[in-house]
Amino acid sequence: MENYHILERIGEGSFGKVYRGRRKYSGLIVALKFVTKQGKSARDLENLRQEINILRRLNHCNIIAMMDSFETEGEFCMVTEYAQGELFQVLEDEHSLPEEEIRKIAIQLIQALHVLHSNRIIHRDMKPQNILIGSKQQIKLCDFGFARAIAHDTSLLRSIKGTPLYMAPELVQEKPYNYTVDLWSLGVILYELATGRPPFYTDRIVSLIQMIVRDDVKYPSTMSADFQSFLKGLLNKDPAQRLKWPEILKHPFIQETPEQLETRLQLERQVRTLPRFFQENELHQPPADENEEKVKPSVERLRSCDEWKICDPETGRQLSKPEIPVENTTETEDLSNNREPSSPPEPAKPVHSVALENFLVVWDRVSREMDVKHVDAELMSSPLFANAVDLLSSIPTHEFSNDILSKIGSLLQLLYRSLVLQLKNSDQLTEFGSLMQSKDNIHRFLTHVVEINGALESDQEQMSDVIYKCVRCCMICTTIVNSIDSGTDLEQLDYREFCKSDVDVISLVLTCKDEVVAASHSKALKWLGSMIDRSQNLTTLLEVVYPSGVIQTLCKILHTSGVSRSPGGRISKSGRDLGLYSVFALAAFVQPDAKCWSPLQPFPVLSLVRDDNVPMESSNVRPLYKLRVKVHSEVGSQLLSSGVGELIALLGDEISERVRLKQSEADDEDIGEEDADQSTICCILKILMHSCRSSAPLSKKLTVTKIVFQKHRDTDIFTILLWGFSSGCLHQIEQYFATELLSVILRRGVLPKRQIWRCAQTLFPVLHAANDTALLSALSTFFAEIVESCNIDESALGNNDPDKLEPMDKELWNLLVYGALPSKCSDAVFRLFSNNSPEEDSKAQMLTSYNIRAQGLLDSGIVFLLRVASKAAPLRDGATRSDEMNMFMSVFQHDQAWEVFDEMMATGGGDLLSPWGLFCFLKLLRIVREMQCNEPQMEIAVNEHLLLHLVNLLELKHIEYLFQWPEIVGGGTNAVKALVHATVKVLGIPFAHSVSEELLVDTQEILYDAKCVQKLLGVLRFVFSTKELQLEASVLELPISFLSRLVTSSTHFGSQFVEADGMLVIKECGMLSGNCSPSLIIDTLLIVSQLHAVPRTITTAF
Fold first, then answer.
1. Sheet with strand 4-13: strands edge to edge
2. Residue 503 · residue 451 · CB < 8 Å
3. pLDDT tens digit string along 665-711?
4. 687 and 786 inside one domain
5. Higher pLDDT, 588 or 309
6. Catalytic entry in 47, 80, 130, 236
7. pLDDT by residue (tens digit) across 626-650?
8. Strand partners, 66
9. 530 and 555 housed in the same domain
10. For residue range 316-366, what is the model confidence (pLDDT) as tens digits?
11. Residues 745, 780 within the same domain
12. Catalytic-residue membership of 215
């Protein structure tokens, strides 16, 4: 208590009193909960200590944090985070909450319960009074664990004391129960939040219990179907039928949109980390002078009691009772009755020795009866050999002599040889039961050995060899399963459980720091990489990996691998290998090479040039997007803690080695370009790019992290990257990821202008010379970011004078500061637009993370031109265009530019133009046309090369495909509205500006032949027939305005309007109703009035 001031008492419960306090010498406000020892048995006290130790390890934003704990002779004290608000008080004030607010609370409570149940902790006292509200409106679950520890052996009525409003039927009936009692309580709380009272309520406790057990829950009609379904799943009186983990996490009611998920994750990251006043692995200990009776450790007792029988939140399966060791007794023979004394009898062998003897007998038979020199793929199917493998996990580890380890190693070697043959013939494998059995047996053996390895006294080298061979066998078993085609009994395999068992063992091996186990870390990392590379269902595997802690382990291993670096920066071979394997695994997580995923869906604009369009499949986009956000955020968060420095150091090592090889083999052609996406440099850049994209703090840390590089201290990543560019040793795909990484950091606004200028100087000549589509795209993004947001000024040059710069630097300066577009830059951008070859499609797949793409490679070139135009746009002398704008417009005075655009649109952008890129292209086209609408040559070029393509954008199949394209990656309702408006604006420019009569007639002829009126009417009909698009009538205004211009400009368009049942469309869309805007009504009336000149009658439509 010497570290805390008591401020006031804030509560009192059945287990003690709660005070608000302050940590001495700080302003930290805490809650102190005191529990008396009076009346507690030694078992109760030991139980409570064990619970405190469990709760110390919990660290989650939706669980009140345990910050400290101690005990005196008379009482325990738990120091927790202080949260001022209570959900109970909110209910008292508001009576009920909107469903959207309830959903937010439900999501957070589900997160908290998932953590508790994953740690085998049952709350048992869920109620609004135990749900607090912390900073930034975060829900905090409190008062868990202590009730069970103290009242473990008391009766039900004694333990609940008050009214059981929130208790499950099995609890109030004193029946066996499991963690689902917490889920029932959650359902009651959510019901009360919605209706203002619990589902069962009466002042009489006996009646209340009868209602909970017998009565059905009545749901209000105002409750949504998803919410009602969720509550029915929680408030099922049969615990076996209640919602369980992990199904509850997939329920529609608690599914979040990507935006909601990101908002919640950002909030969790913003909430500051609370201090813990104990060491990471420090246990709560009783006072040194306390003399309590020794009791069986409470964890063992709790694991054997009914309460914990089915507490695995991932499977929901009942946990088996722990085996109780049988103590061996030896009866003493009676040596009296004149019997001659004999030699003392041999002591009875302990029971566990039988297992070893069985193994030795079976191994002896394997050695004698089987041809171990000529192993075949059927070896594992042999009952004798399978029995030997099965016995491995039963051998007591304290009997691991050198001879025993040698026999085990020989057995594992035979198993490995047989597995290799099975892998070669995996296409012929139809039965894999023996394979899975062997894998499970090796898993158990390896787990047992690793867990107790520190206590073994056997030969360390032999033990290390056995562990290595186990990992090797496990790895090849996994590879075989992932290589088997469907059609075998593999379809019966629970792939999630299969992955989880592998990941658990890998994690166990990697987290063990003992040298004997650490020797197999590299192999375990290869095993992990093989799983990712060959997985049949990568989505399932990644869903298993994300919560397993493997990513954190990889980052720690990466950090640890750099410990072997000398003061000069050199690293040992073993440390380097360990670091590289960690890099490959992390790169596979952030950007998996998913052969099992379906090919990329083509961008919507490609539907205009392909006749073989397949239906849009968007069902997998959202879960993959969520998974990508989770994994990238986790990698970013863990790298922020450890590993980023070693990543930079490894990057420097690899680039340095690449430069050395390039200098020593100057005459040799660069090799490995086709495999460059798997190079170490590329993997490091992928990790940094994706993790920085998801973590702003990591981006900032990356800019300030310094390493020792080539005996120079304080070297940053930018120096290393720019050296790689200038030396010419980076492959094109490596340059792409390096440039994308620089762009991500630029967006964060953490780079000083001097550093930005250095980067731009290095990459400017790369842009001039580049021909690769991906690299040109990344470079366009990089320079677009600088032009738009970096505000380069003379401070970027240091002491240099802008007027005295070298010619190339002067061009760069004018581009970044004034928007003056040099010809070499525009040439590079149009080279990007011209690269629409089929092989670019496979490159797009290679550059895509999690099979999701929201942007195309061509987008960045268009955005670059837009931002340059914006920089150069300011007028001089009130109305005169700037010299920079004239330079920009000169690009479009050549037919070559329009021919490139023509080819780009004719090929649908080669599937490299996203909906967002197409919208930007239309915006760019509108700017260029409006700037030079009075120049006939420009309009002629537009009519000749682009007008027909623009009309075709209104094709119904394109609009429908764009509508089906997932909104999360740039499609959906907003995309349709934006595209229609942008297209109509560009098409309407000649009618809104004074162009020559000849050009106007030419434009009208093209629009007439392209059936622009019919296409517009088709779009309008689709808009109004689609519920999601019907929400805003404003989407009609621009299309109708353009239609009115067309119809009033020529009777030919009027005829087309009538032939396409335009009046029926006007009626269906209600364009003359009082709900429409005046401008929409006026344009509609203009069309109607103009149609009197058309021979066909219009009255039939009304």
1. 4-13, 16-23, 29-36, 75-81, 66-71
2. no
3. 654 444 455 667 788 999 999 999 999 999 999 999 999 988 887 76
4. no
5. 588
6. 130
7. 999 999 999 999 999 988 999 999 9
8. 80
9. no
10. 333 343 333 333 333 333 333 333 333 433 443 333 356 787 788 888 888
11. no
12. no
The domain total for the chain is 6
Q: Is residue 613 part of a domain?
A: no
What is the residue range of 118's domain? 85-150+157-273
DSSP run (H or E) holding 29: strand 29-36
| Overall pTM > 0.70 | no
Mark whether 699 and 813 lie in a shared domain: no
Q: Please confirm, yes or no, whether 595 is among the known catalytic residues.
A: no
Q: Which residues are annotated as a binding site for ATP?
A: 33
163 is catalytic: yes
In this model, does residue 995 exceed pLDDT 90?
Answer: no
Assess whether 34 and 180 both reside in one domain. no
Domain check: are 816 and 859 in the same one?
yes
Whether residue 127 lies in the annotated active site: yes
Exposure string of 606-636, with b = 16+ CB inside 10 Å and e = fewer, is bbbbeeeeeebebebbbebbbbbbbbbbbbb
Q: Give the pLDDT confidence of 360-414 residue by residue, as tens digits.
A: 888 888 888 887 777 888 887 788 888 889 889 888 887 888 888 999 999 999 9
Instruction: Report how far residue 728's alpha carbon sits from residue 723's, in angstroms, rounded to the nearest whole number.
Output: 9
Q: Which of 273, 293, 326 is the last residue of a domain?
A: 273
| Any domain includes 544 | no
Looking at per-residue confidence, does 476 or 995 come out higher? 476
- Residue that finishes a domain, picked among 876, 904, 932: 932
Contact 932, 889 (CB under 8 A): yes
- The residue annotated as part of the active site, out of 62, 80, 104, 127, is 127
- C-beta of residue 872 within 8 angstroms of C-beta of residue 885: yes
* List 44, 80, 104, 125, catalytic entry: 125
Asked if the structure places residue 323 within a domain, the reply is no
964, 924: one domain = no
Active-site hit among 44, 68, 143, 390: 143
Same domain? 965 vs 902: no
Helices and strands, counts by H and E, the chain: 48, 10
State the binding site. 33
- pLDDT (average), residues 101-117: 89
Active site residue 447: no
Collapsed DSSP state (helix, strand, coil) of residue 366? helix
The C-alpha atoms of residue 967 and residue 550 are separated, in whole angstroms, by 32
Domain presence at residue 314: no
